[in-house]
Design brief:
The complex is a heterodimer of chains A (398) and B (329). Chain A has helices at residues 2-17, 43-62, 82-94, 107-119, 154-162, 176-192, 210-218, 230-242, 259-265, 282-285, 290-301, 307-326, 331-340, and strands at residues 29-36, 70-77, 100-102, 124-126, 142-144, 167-173, 195-202, 223-227, 249-251, 273-276, 343-345, 348-350, 363-368, 371-376. Chain A is an alpha/beta fold and 398 residues long. Chain B has a single domain (2-164, 173-318), classed as ABC transporter involved in vitamin B12 uptake, BtuC, CATH 1.10.3470. Classes of the chains: A alpha/beta (398), B mainly alpha (329). At the A-B interface, strand 7, helix 7, helix 8 and helix 9 of A face helix 2, strand 2, helix 6 and helix 11 of B.
């Protein structure tokens, strides 16, 4: 009995030790490691990013590679969980000994693993994180690509000023990303001389906004800046209609960007503003390589890439350029290249400042006839915005 | 002596409730959230009316929870999950079959009754009358199982049913959503029907008898296991009806049920555990105070939960029977 126990124990030990055995990566390859949500609540957006990574790696490997070396892409699943993600990045770095790493999806998980990446000095692209606070902690190795949450409402507030709105209300879910988006909205309102008559949070899972909206009305706000996700944004615009509260502007963040927003809400969703990092509209955005990327993505996955897909593809383009500039995948050299270089991706130009922030400019769109149309910044707008929103009574009944 | 303590606790509760309703106004005045003009009064009226409408729906599924507790002394923590299930059933009938959410009640309620009976037969019958912890754990497990099954089928995406989106104008500046009014009317109708069923019908009387004293009921020739099944079925039907009415007003996903369980708890504690009318009144009272807090206190919406569960704790401290609950022995 005892003997068999010792045997089993020994066997188990051998099993756990196996991964520690040095895994030698062939010298003619650059290994690229990532842990990202393939299951759990982030699986949907993260899945689009994985699509792009696979597409890019296959394209590069079929061509000249990075400095003539093929990419060895190591993909792990963090199950949308912070702790799992930390463990997996430790594993990628200490056991798999990858050359370079890409960040996970979501600001929260990125913020958590960034500490690991700093400790091991791994230059990492972070296309899955948009909270500016991540880059306010003196980190050197994490590189931003997309517009930070503080700038999500920049367009909406500019538009509000342009149509003569004086008083705005800012509301948002009580969690990291919406709070930062709200913080930025307050800043922009201050800069543009708009009065914030109400700035409040609500708990996650809040479904009834009746009293809050009535309060906004009582404060005589003309525009509602809603730092929300899908469910709350949808509930708010719906309840504005139920209460017959007529505002000039309703601006969400990520909610209105989802196709189901317009689909599930019907004509209630019309005239709503939303934010996007990028749209697959090459004729308007005119980024180099954009058309080819969109075509290749669509051919392989059957759908147009959304901004998640665009920004993750861009992050590998940047890595590719950095490796080329550094002359090898040596982490120190790649890091130096990333800090100083200037390049252009499918989503736009890229160059970081001292805090590793790239000044990517997102765009504001409006839902018109059920479609998202870019309305801001002006230089890339598809159509002029139709604002102020018409009164609910004047809208067609459905 | 006991009589005196009883009366005293009643006064304390009344005093507490008056204070609870006054506080939002006080803070509102102090923080300039109260304006003394007609427009603001209209806004306040809208908020209170909406609270009452909301409360009617909450009350209906809280009544289901109170029924089960009254008859079997079981706290069904999976009750909110049945509400959520009701929302999904209605959603399915609406999007796949194209049935109006209210007409769908004719289909969902019988299904719910069967689900309730099955839960009783397979799970609760085994534990009723035993230690109080076992049914609590069983229903807790059941709730989690339902959440994960629904999640596996429908994912965690939020869904909503676009139904009667417009406002009903009551006066120049008082508007209430049509879907809210429809929900309130339906909820009141169902709650009152069930009330009269319990008062007048033979089976209803048997349910009440079992709630008062199961042993005596049994001696009088009532098959209490039969009664348990009907009670469970009825409670499930009330929850699913609540879900249907919630689904036409709000978004929902598999996890929203938890919120409704908690809400139902707060309501039946306030109204008195096991008391039918108490739950109805408690539902409306809770929804109204939530609305007032959200409307008048700065960042009030974020404090609504603190307030409603804080209120639950206070009521338990001051007067555990709540507004109308039976005396504890």
């Amino acid at each position: 009995m005892k003997k068999s126990f010792v045997l089993i124990l020994g066997f188990a030990l051998a099993l756990t030790a196996a991964p520690f055995v040095e895994k030698s990566h062939a010298m003619d390859k650059v290994s690229l490691g990532i842990a990202i949500s393939q299951t759990g609540r982030y699986a949907e957006p993260a899945g689009r990013m994985v699509n792009s990574y696979k597409l890019y790696v296959d394209q590069v490997n079929a061509g000249k590679g990075w400095n003539g070396k093929k990419i060895d892409f190591i993909l792990l699943d963090d199950k949308s969980d912070k702790q799992t993600s930390i463990k997996l990045y430790e594993k990628l770095i200490t056991q798999d000994k990858v050359n370079l790493t890409i960040g996970p999806y979501s600001s929260g998980i990125t913020d958590a693993v960034a500490n690991v990446l700093e400790r091991y000095k791994y230059p990492t692209m972070a296309p899955g994180a948009s909270s500016g606070i991540i880059w306010k902690k003196g980190r050197k190795y994490l590189f931003n690509i997309i517009a930070i949450a503080q700038d999500y409402q920049k367009g909406a507030i500019h538009i509000a000023r342009d149509i003569g709105v004086k008083k705005i209300a800012i509301v948002g879910e009580d969690s990291l990303f919406p709070r930062q988006s709200a913080e930025g909205a307050v800043e922009w309102a201050k800069k543009l001389g708009l009065e914030v008559v109400l700035n409040e949070n609500y708990p996650r899972k809040q479904t009834d906004f009746t009293a809050l909206l009535q309060k906004i009305k009582a404060r005589r706000a003309e525009a509602l800046i809603s730092n929300s996700y899908f469910a709350d944004a949808a509930a708010q615009i719906r309840q504005l209609r139920e209460l017959n509260i007529n505002l000039k502007i309703f601006a969400g963040t990520v909610g209105p960007g989802l196709p189901k927003f317009a689909k599930q809400l019907g004509d209630t969703a019309e005239y709503v503003l939303g934010f996007s990092q990028w749209e697959p509209k090459p004729a308007i955005l005119k980024r180099p390589g954009m058309k080819e990327f969109i075509a290749a993505y669509k051919k392989r996955y059957g759908v147009n890439p959304n901004y998640h897909a665009g920004q993750s593809y861009a992050s590998l383009q940047i890595f590719g350029d950095a490796v080329a500039k550094a002359g090898s995948a040596d982490r120190d050299k790649v890091w130096k290249a990333l800090r100083t270089m200037k390049t252009t991706t499918v989503i736009g130009p890229w160059k970081v400042d001292d805090t590793n922030l790239n000044q990517h400019e997102g765009l504001t769109f409006q839902i018109l006839n059920g479609e998202r149309k870019i309305v801001w910044p002006k230089k890339i707008s598809e159509v002029p915005y139709k604002l102020p929103m018409p009164n609910w009574k004047e809208r067609g009944k459905n | 002596m006991q009589e005196k303590a009883e009366i005293r606790s009643k006064y304390w509760l009344a005093l507490f409730l008056v204070a609870a309703y006054t506080v939002p106004f006080g803070i509102g005045i102090y923080t300039d959230n109260v304006f003394f003009d007609l427009q603001w009064l209209a806004d306040l009226t809208t908020v209170i009316l909406n609270g009452i409408m909301q409360g009617g729906v909450y009350a209906m599924f809280a009544v289901g929870l109170t029924l089960i507790f009254g008859v079997m002394r079981i706290i069904n923590v999976a009750h909110g999950e049945l509400v959520m299930l009701g929302a999904y059933l209605t959603w399915m009938f609406f999007f796949y079959v194209g049935i109006d959410p209210l007409l769908a009640l004719f289909l969902t309620l019988p299904i719910a009754f069967v689900i309730g009976v099955l839960i009783q037969k397979l799970l609760l019958n085994a534990v009723v009358g035993g230690p109080e912890l076992t049914p609590l754990l069983i229903t807790f497990g059941l709730g989690l199982t339902i959440i994960h099954i629904v999640e596996a089928i429908f994912t965690t995406d939020y869904r909503t049913i676009p139904y009667a989106p417009d406002a009903l104008q009551i006066s120049e500046s008082i508007n209430i959503g049509r879907s809210k009014i429809i929900s309130f009317v339906m909820a009141s109708f169902i709650s009152i029907s069930v009330f009269f069923f319990l008062k007048i019908h033979r089976i209803g009387k048997a349910i009440r008898a079992t709630a008062q004293n199961a042993d005596v009921a049994m001696v009088c020739g009532i098959n209490i296991f039969h009664i348990y099944m009907i009670t469970s079925g009825l409670a499930a039907a009330l929850a699913v009806a609540g879900g249907a009415l919630v689904s036409i007003q709000f978004g929902f996903n598999p996890e929203t049920g938890v919120l409704y369980t908690l809400q139902a708890f707060a309501i039946i504690v306030l109204g008195g555990r096991g008391h039918y009318i108490g739950a109805l009144i408690g539902g409306v009272m809770l929804a109204v105070i939530e609305s007032l807090i959200s409307f008048m206190i700065p960042n009030g919406t974020a404090m609504v939960e603190i307030a409603s569960y804080g209120m639950m704790v206070f009521v338990l401290l001051i007067r555990p029977r709540g507004l109308m609950g039976p005396k504890e022995n």
